[in-house]
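Mods, move this if it's the wrong board.
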Amino acid sequence: MKPDYLPRIVDKILEERLDAIGAVLIAGPKWCGKTTTAEQQAKSVLKLQDPNKSKGYLATAETKPSLLLNGENPRLIDEWQMAPQITWTYPKQLCFLILTLWSDYML
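Not the wrong board. Structure tokens:
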């Protein structure tokens, strides 16, 4: 864990789910710690909302989404709903963390 991270009750549950299932959706309201919590388990991170890279990521998602999945697993895909073809096309091939703001996006 990162030095300034305050452990959460969900940390152990997240670790167990990743070990058992390989793909986990973390849902909740804005600014509740979803990304920070997931980053503790992730070995690589893709933040689709990055203002300097977002357009390129979304263009890649349209043409060859598998390129965005390159990275060590478990891979955090933050704001996946911006390019849902990533997670819907390749869920069985990968171990990843996916985050969303709205709880009605479930895998």
